[in-house]
Amino acid sequence: LLVLLSQILDHWFESEPLKATLATDAVIGAMSSPHTPGSGYVLLHHVMGELEGRRGAWGYVAGGMGALSQAIARAAATRGAHIFTEKAVCRVLLGTDGRVQGVALRDGTEVRSKVVLSNASPQLTFLELTPQEQLPEDFVRRIRGLDTRSPVTKINVAVDRLPSFLAAPNTRDGRPLPHHQCSIHLNSEATHLLHQAFTEAAHGHPSSRPMIELCIPSALDPGLAPPGCHVMSLFTQYTPYELAGGRPWDEQARNAYADTVFDCIEDYAPGFKASVIGRDILTPPDLERVFGLPGGNIFHGGMSLDQLYFTRPAPSYSGYRSPVPGLYLCGSGAHPGGGVMGAAGRNAARVVLGDFRCL
To answer: Domains plus CATH for the chain?
Structure first.
């Protein structure tokens, strides 16, 4: 796992475009390049598991990603769970004995419970919601020191037609072709391009030729857009959380970077820019503000070797229990990390069930 991803790919493959395409899954969401030591693990993380019996496969959620949350909510509700939305938690309630007693909401409501599972990041859970005096100093120091750098700017796009790529032009009927129903990687013809894009961001500059992962979920799920139109998801990097010279990520900076991304797509699919109806740009600070992702990191913290396994989120606290009895961490900041797989939540639930009789 300490080996560079580029060494692994060079050992197994000869084709540079193939190596670069595989390399993108080793740097997705990570402020690192294919030449960064330990980057091989991130690739492994993205291909572990299976979907409908196919190892390493990914899939679309019918109805959009929100449909997955709704399905989980329905399953919980049928078993007696009460779900409250738009009810922000302001702090974890503790008793005089230091044990969890529930949570307090911003509207003043207190929800009493002897068990609290937090799906929020370790930083939000322990540095903002939990009384600091109840936590060990070394634990707090470790959580404060977590690497949460993120290279990701997410751009959601609405278009009035499918992009027609020079490498595989659209048919006259405008129907989706096989490649429209897959993950399309652009600016990924060679690993050195990924490294160059990373280097620019490491110096505080948005990549001039960003890595782009383009998906068109409406090509498989037409109900996501009006007839003839489509929605596109652009997962792009590298963009720094803080721009060089202290420049803010204002509307001008956001749009300038998005224009760079769109110019790149235009090179592969002429006419793309003319098809755009609307776009939503989420830089790392936006992802932090809107979704509570520290530093904009989709994994609640880097997936580097010093923040994995028995050190996630901190040494001696990788088993989902926290220093506060009754408070558990069950999100991406816990083992085994981020991704739409539910492993951290399932593992945490099993630990809680085992502890429940003692609480």
So the answer is: 5-59+151-291 (no CATH), 80-141+313-357 (3.50.50.60)
